[in-house]
Amino acid sequence: MSPTSETAQGGRRLVIVESPAKAKTIKGYLGPGYVVEASVGHIRDLPNGAAEVPDQYTGEVRRLGVDVEHDFQPVYVVNADKKSQVRKLKELLADSDELFLATDEDREGEAIAWHLQQVLKPKVPVRRMVFHEITKDAIRAAVANPRELNQRLVDAQETRRILDRLYGYEVSPVLWKKVMRGLSAGRVQSVATRLVVERERDRIAFRSAEYWDLTGVFATGRTGDTSDPGTFGARLTAVDGRRVAQGRDFTSTGQLKGGAQVLHLDEAGARGLVTALADTAFTVRSVESKPYRRSPYAPFRTTTLQQEASRKLGFGAKATMQVAQKLYENGFITYMRTDSTTLSETAVAAARAQVTQLYGANFLPDKPRTYAGKVKNAQEAHEAIRPSGDRFRTPAETGLAGDQFRLYELIWKRTVASQMKDAVGNSVTVKIGGRASDGRDAEFSASGKTITFHGFMKAYVEGADDPNAELDDRERRLPQVAEGDRLAAQEITADGHATKPPARYTEASLVKELEEREIGRPSTYASIIGTILDRGYVFKKGTALVPSFLSFAVVNLLEKHFGRLVDYDFTAKMEDDLDRIARGEAQAVPWLKRFYFGESATEPGGGATAPGAESGAAPGAVGGAADAGNGDGDHLGGLKDLVTDLGAIDAREISSFPVGDGIVLRVGRYGPYVERPTETEGATGQRADVPDDLPPDELTVEYAEELLAKPSGDFELGTDPATGRKIVAKDGRYGPYVTEVLPEDTPKTGKNAVKPRTASLFKSMSLDTVTLQDALRLMSLPRAVGTDAEGVEITAQNGRYGPYLKKGTDSRSLESEEQLFTITLDQALAIYAQPKQRGRAAAKPPLKELGTDPVSERPVVVKDGRFGPYVTDGETNATLRRDDDVETITPERGYELLAEKRAKAPAKKTAKKAAAKKTTTAKKAAAKKTTTAKKTAAKKTTAAKKTAAKKTATAAKAATKPAAKAD
User: Fold this and answer.
1) How far is CA 623 from the centre of its chain?
2) Contacts of 79 (CB under 8 A, 6+ apart)
3) I need a surface site. Which of 13, 100, 162, 955 has the fewest CB within 10 A?
């Protein structure tokens, strides 16, 4: 049955999807017999706190939202902000004859569909409508071929949700007690944080090694051209048969690796060899040529799309998924949360047709290319991410702009390239040798690559995480030489190098690492990275992910007291167990019991097959912790025991890290600081705050000494001659300020409370130079300048956005802070005599220029705005984050902030459009509503009376109960 107006002759069909944008697109493909409405995401979930839990639940159930004593039954509540939408869906369902649940075809989407069915309680037939692209043909085929709800997928999602709730709600409070309030732990987020912290530990422990080598420029003696260069560069590889040491030959501690039979050249040795080779005659010792072949890359799946968008477009993982979501909902690409690299026959045909059309038949392989999935436990039967439809629109045909155009173009190119021929060519290695004046034999080597047929590279070349890496399509042509040819050394130079610490993770490389370790689900990586950034565990320096000192304390606690929970193999094994549950190979409840209560929770032979246990396992194997999913097979018991016994956790110890020379870094409740302990037992040592945005590997002993040497605490400036009170200068949370010290008996609370006079220092002042006179002047503000002709007082004040004049409600900015004390009444009146500037003030010069944005192709600059510095390309503005600094921000970071801002929908504009549409719809439906209102008036009046009585009774009953405490 095709979805046309004829199909709905027997009634009306209600189609429910997740998002309004998706609903709008699908509505255009269905006939008038269909009503398409959005659930706006999840309508029901576990409660966010005890206040949301129904009254019949008490104790641990109220805290967790899960009844751990009764087979881990979850307590679901309709989200407060979704109650009105649920009412709307119920009203629409009441007038419908059939319900189609058209949420995404993955675990999350299946769970949303199940919750909709449970909450709406439909009395009409229910169909599960699935599709992986939003095109007319796909939507009509989905309506014509519905399926039943997949309960296994629902159970798998529910198990994950319960597991994550238990992990987060049990471990997070430990962090609150032992590290800092407001922190969170999570099954994947904590492991991701540990990866970033471990990389920083490696950088801290790293010791650089210096090594030297030689570079020569050699000439053939022929006049060169592009196909046969006359000169080429080569690097020294061996001296007297011993290979010259390179960076790979050194350990992270700066020592040569054991057993490395290499020559370690220092500066003196390298320069001496250059001198000895000054008059050497060189010859070609060997020429080795090998065929070069490179196959196309597989079409995108979720993680590879995130990685490439980061490398090529400067998008963060979150921004990539936001843009991809819009492209999917508007029918431009297939579903963007997928582990699959396969293409349907229709997609392969479309790609091959475009290869022939755009590049010619000689770029098309004889047979379609297929790609095997590399992702373990890839979920569901999705396709790769590709352009939608049976004919791919070229980027120019889409009408897209900005970030959506750029991402669609990336996906389109990758998909088309995946069905093109290999690139082929030749790789050549030339070795050149000569004998130095001191008798030593020196051998140089040069490598080249020529591409004779570019194949798929005509359409697409993958980027690289290493900025120094050479891309696949880069050619390096060497001259045509043969063994025995004589070469002249035009120049030989000595080059010094130093080994570098391991690079910090970027969003792209962290996604890659998590996927390779099989930790978590690829579809969740973007939100995981967003969480660790938002929680302050990680901040960005350019595109690099830098762990905060806070994350060191958190990971330290988790490693020492919850080792299994952040163990990489255990977390990957847990993912395996969850996937086995999804396939019906294991049962959820016994697995959860073992995870939460420990291995003794389910005795062998108790009827539940343990996840991981083989059917022919030996007696007793079923109850093993490893089989239950508790990864490393230890016998520490379950999560409940781990979070109950906290006596062994020393909060000070887990938050303390030695810097050197007796100095210790500590993570306190108000941030990190360094301390030099005193010899007096129990006494507080010398302390100094550490900047929140300092990368941990930059905290050296020298820098710590510098911080400790800075003046800290209160600076007594003197006594106010007018009041006799002491005046002090302090460094506060929001910057330096001066204040007076009130007598000890001064009331600080209540009606008679007295607040001390306080004033922030001017930008031109510092704690080291501020004087008593400066302080008294600052605390004299606001200053009365005088009154105008109507008797209204004019005052000079220093505010959040700088110095200004105030007359009633009329404020005018001043040019400098000094004017607060020098401006006269006449000057103030002259300022007020000028028309008030309603538009923007004259544009300030940019603080920094970053370059040209790859999306808008406009110059990007950093400016100082009302709410702080921001980046802009003239079209889009993005405020710098807490961890961004004007001095150190890189162009890539600026482009990323703009990309994230563009990815967010313009809420105000959407609201206006929606409002306009509603007004039009309201006019059209006015007559119909009037008629309906007459018919239902009596019914509503009766119902209203009953509802009112019920509400009054409920309110009276609730008034007698104590208020539930927030979790």
Assistant:
1) 39
2) 42, 43, 44, 45
3) 955
Rounded CA gap, 423 and 451, in Å?
7
Question: What pLDDT, on the 0 to 100 scale, is given for residue 471?
Answer: 62
Tokens of 692: 């929140």
Contact call for residues 442 and 269 (beta carbons, < 8 A)? no
Under DSSP, is residue 868 helix (H, G, I), strand (E, B) or coil? Answer: strand
d(CA 117, CA 140): 22
Q: Where does 542-634 show beta strands of DSSP type E?
A: 544-547
Rounded distance between C-alpha atoms, residue 431 and residue 479, angstroms: 13
Q: Which residues contact 928 (CB under 8 A, 6 or more apart)?
A: none
* C-alpha–C-alpha distance, residues 807 and 794, integer Å: 5
d(CA 507, CA 644): 35
Low-confidence ranges of the chain (pLDDT < 70): 1-10, 260, 373-381, 464-473, 600-637, 681-684, 711-714, 733-734, 837-844, 866, 904-967
HEC sequence for 457-477: HHCCCCCCCCCCCCCCCCCEC
| 724: amino acid identity, one letter | G
- Mean residue pLDDT of the chain comes to 83
The CA distance from 766 to 687, in Å, is 20
> Which is the catalytic residue, given 34, 297, 328, 335?
335
Using alpha carbons, list the distances in angstroms from residue 596 to 565, 605, 624, 645, 912. 12, 19, 14, 14, 50
CA-nearest of 734, 770, 759, 736 to 820 is 759
Backbone φ, ψ for residue 770 (5° rounding): -65, 140
Count Cβ atoms below 10 Å from residue 535 Cβ, excluding itself: 19
Q: What is the per-residue pLDDT across 774-816, written as a single tens digit (0 to 9) for each? A: 999 999 999 999 999 889 999 999 877 788 999 988 888 888 8
CA 310, CA 893: separation in Å to the nearest integer? 11
What's the CA angle centered on 48, arms 44 and 49, to 5 degrees?
Answer: 130
Show the 3-state SS of 2-18: CCCHHHHCCCCEEEEEC
- The answer to whether 218 and 487 are in contact (CB under 8 A) is yes
Closest CA to 108 of 517, 515, 529, 522: 522
Element (DSSP H or E) covering residue 361: none
- Kindly report the length of the chain: 967
Annotate 913-966 with three-state secondary structure. HHHHHHHHHHHHHHHHHHHHHHHHHHHHHHHHHHHHHHHHHHHHHHHCCCCCCC
**Are the beta carbons of 795 and 782 closer than 8 angstroms?**
yes
The two beta strands, 242-244 and 231-239, are: antiparallel
335 is catalytic: yes
**Which residues lie below 8 Å from residue 921, measured CB to CB, with a gap of 6+?**
none
* Sign of torsion over alpha carbons 403, 409, 410, 411: positive
Amino acid at 793: E
Q: How far is the C-alpha of 810 from the C-alpha of 832, rounded, in Å?
A: 9
Q: Which two tokens stand for residue 42?
A: 């999840």
Q: How many CB atoms lie within 10 A of CB 832?
A: 14
Question: For residue 657, what are its two tokens?
Answer: 């890290």
Give the tokens for residue 552. 């060191």
For residue 278, give both structure tokens: 């000054």
Contact 606, 586 (CB under 8 A): no
Note whether 243 and 261 are within 8 A (CB): yes
